[in-house]
Design brief:
- By secondary structure, this protein is mostly helical.
- It has two domains: 145 residues, no CATH class; 58 residues, no CATH class.
- It is 47% helix and 8% strand.
- The protein has six helices and six strands.
- The strands form three sheets. The chain has a two-stranded antiparallel ribbon. A two-stranded antiparallel sheet has the order 3-4.
- Helix 1 runs antiparallel to helix 4.
Length: 214
């Protein structure tokens, strides 16, 4: 029995990526060309927010979002995908293909090459975890620009969880009390603190804070 190098769960198939992480990586790869195209409207700020005037009296040239320009440039999204494809080809003893065409064409070609190699990557490539993690992070980074998730109101921050495991290791995760909530639950160790222990909870957290300061 192996362990998935991405989610670190046991994989009975004994590969480097479990079936779920393999499928998720395939979906993320398939989304990359559309995400690349989706960045285009965000490359320059809207004309409605342009301020200042140029030397000729017209509107000042709009600045370019350099982080988006980098993602859409030769060293951005396409660079990440092409580097991984080159590493796969090298590991498999395959001839490395020279990039041809526009950045968008190159990205689609590199994505197709990696998709074709996914069965081998998930089972036979020791770098599969690093590869899958970078593809995951890349898609998250682009999606955070195109469709950022709304901020979540987690409620009131109480302090750090004072629970200890069987080995005496302090949890230390942040405890939150949801708005209007009647109970506190640690999202990391799942320890629950009902209202009748909140007074003691404050004492425990204060003692842990003093110990860290010392």
């Amino acid at each position: 029995m192996g362990t998935c190098l991405l989610c670190e769960t046991h994989d009975s198939a004994g590969g480097y990526l479990c079936l779920a992480c393999t499928k998720a990586t395939v979906v993320r790869l398939e989304c990359l060309p559309d995400l690349y195209e989706g960045l285009l409207p965000f490359l320059a700020p809207s004309m409605a927010v342009a301020q200042g005037r140029s030397g000729k009296g017209g509107p000042a040239p709009l600045p370019v979002h350099t982080e988006i320009l980098d993602l859409r440039g030769p060293g951005g999204m396409v660079g990440v995908v092409e580097d991984h494809l080159a590493a796969v080809h090298q590991e498999r003893g395959m001839r490395r293909l020279a990039p041809v065409g526009s950045v968008e064409t190159r990205l689609k070609s590199a994505v197709a090459g990696l998709l074709a190699s996914m069965p081998w990557i998930s089972v036979s490539w020791p770098e599969a975890g690093t590869f899958a993690g970078e593809i995951r992070d890349l898609t998250r980074s682009v999606r955070s620009i195109i469709a950022p998730e709304p901020a979540v109101d987690r409620g009131e921050r109480l302090g750090n969880c004072p629970a200890m495991d069987s080995a005496g290791v302090l949890c230390g995760a942040v405890l939150w009390l949801p708005r209007g909530g009647k109970a506190v639950r640690c999202e990391w160790c799942d320890t629950r603190y009902p209202p009748y222990v909140w007074g003691q909870l404050k004492v425990w957290m204060a003692e842990d804070e003093k110990a860290r300061a010392a």
